[in-house]
Design goal:
Shape: globular
CATH class of the largest domain: Mainly Alpha
Strand content: 5-15%
Distance between the termini: 33 Å
Radius of gyration: 25 Å
Helix content: 55-70%
CATH superfamily of the largest domain: SecY subunit domain
Number of helices: 21
Number of strands: 5
Structural class: mainly alpha
Largest sheet: 3 strands, antiparallel
Order of helices and strands: HHHHHHHHHHHHHEEEEHHHHHEHHH
């Protein structure tokens, strides 16, 4: 594997792509460090500490993790790349239900470019809306967050305009950097920026891990046995995530022979890969986005019943975990229902002379694919639920710092594993085209005489 990394720098085109990716990633990290004007950084840190004490800090730490620490520093990149992700998800779901968007998606590169343009416009709108609410929260922390601090040094309309313009520009810049990485770098640029933002919290996570084993008043809360258990658990979770992410159900497909003139086409056997985790990380993102708002809205109501209900639905509670797991199951099947079209796949197979052995072409094939996808989606949903709940259980039940627990599962681990696997596949394809070995050397057959 080390030789594969060294060989990557020997290929001029691949070397240029790797350095180009690192350069743009460095620029994206600068956006997460430039502070927002007119905000008192000392008072902000005090407010964050109060929120962690009163509200537990679950959602705060989660959003701060995806912004690469920009939220905690109140940087211009505090919104991160999440508005673009939200816009992409909205357009992708609308494509399955709006006929005009569905026709655009089938028009090839021209249609996809048009949908990408709509995604950019929607990102701009979401940035303005989220930036406005972020500025309102900073200017009125006492009314909205219950914090008795003053965060903005010069409140008023100029602060609103400056905050919205700064954060919107930063998010649009991150979006542009991600698109440039996708075109001229290695891997999916948006996913790489999110991954680097998550990994930006790794030094703080290591510091918090070391602090877990320091004795307080002569007594250490965690021992060396806990450390060994954490290391083993980390490797098991990562190995399981990689295995399920790459798991496929291979449906055999046979193509009938066709004679066109003097040439014979078809007749070969292949397979159709159906991914076990077809929805990827999307069900977890949907569930987190929906459950983020009800506790906050209920807490601001003047009714005692609403406040109690909001507290029971807060991050990490038993009710939250139960609803969270059910929503992950629901969105796993919802994503498959909107994105996987067995009827179209069956029609395409029939059109090109393909069929599944033992299954009649047409509607029976569509029913077989739908039934198979429903069964394997259950396994993927169970896996996503377990991975999503692990960090909350470690943080809530075992008092492990959230920044440490977040690397043992959840959205962050799924994104990191998926992005690294995709980037490694792209690098390996460049190596194999130049007759280099990939990351794993293939065994050589030897014969004896």
């Amino acid at each position: 594997m080390l030789s594969a990394f060294s060989n990557s720098l020997k290929i001029p085109e691949l070397r240029q792509r790797i350095f180009f990716t690192f350069a743009l990633v460095f620029v994206s990290r600068i956006v997460a460090t430039i502070p927002l004007p007119m905000v008192d950084s000392i008072a902000l840190q005090t407010a964050i500490d109060q929120m962690r004490t009163t509200m537990g800090g679950g959602f705060l730490d989660l959003y701060n993790l995806f912004s690469g620490g920009a939220l905690e520093r109140c940087a211009v990149g505090a919104l991160g790349i999440m508005p673009y992700i939200s816009a992409s998800i909205i357009l992708q779901l609308l494509t399955a239900v709006v006929p005009q968007l569905e026709r655009l998606a089938r028009e090839g590169d021209v249609g996809r470019e048009k949908i990408s343009q709509y995604t950019r416009y929607l990102t701009l709108v979401l940035c303005v809306v989220q930036g406005y609410f972020f500025a309102v929260s900073l200017e009125n922390p006492r009314a909205l967050l219950g914090l008795d601090v003053t965060l903005v040094t010069q409140p008023g309309v100029p602060f609103y305009l400056l905050a919205i313009l700064s954060m919107t520009t930063a998010t649009m810049l991150l979006m542009w950097l991600g698109e440039q990485i996708t075109e001229g770098g290695i891997g999916n640029g948006i996913s790489i920026i999110i991954t680097v933002s998550i990994l930006g919290s790794l030094p703080a996570a290591l510091t918090a891990t070391i602090g877990m084993f320091r004795p307080i008043d002569g007594i250490a809360q965690f021992t060396v046995f806990h450390l060994v258990g954490l290391v083993l658990m980390f490797f098991l979770v990562v190995a399981g995530t990689i295995a399920v992410t790459q798991a496929q159900r291979k449906i055999p497909v046979q193509y009938a022979k066709r004679v066109v003139g003097r040439k014979v086409y078809g007749g070969q056997s292949t397979y159709m890969p159906l991914r076990v985790n077809y929805a990827g990380v999307m069900p977890i993102i949907f569930a987190q986005a929906i459950l983020m708002f009800p506790p906050r809205l209920l807490a601001m109501m003047p009714f005692e019943f609403a406040k109690t209900l909001g507290a029971n639905l807060d991050y990490g509670t038993t009710w939250y975990n139960a609803i969270y797991a059910l929503m992950i199951f629901f969105f796993s099947y919802f994503w498959v229902a909107t994105q996987f079209n067995p009827i179209q796949i069956a029609d395409d197979l029939k059109k090109y002379g393909g069929y599944v052995p033992g299954i009649r072409p047409g509607r029976p094939t569509a029913e077989f694919l739908d039934r198979t996808m429903t069964r394997i989606t259950f396994s993927g949903a169970v896996f996503l639920t377990i991975i999503a709940v692990i960090p909350m259980l470690m943080w809530q039940r075992f008092s492990i710092p959230f920044i440490v627990a977040s690397f043992f599962g959840g959205t962050s681990l799924l994104i990191i594993v998926g992005v690294l696997l995709d980037s490694m596949r792209q690098i390996e394809s460049h190596l194999l085209m130049r007759n280099y070995d990939g990351f794993l050397k293939k065994g050589k057959l030897t014969s004896r005489r």
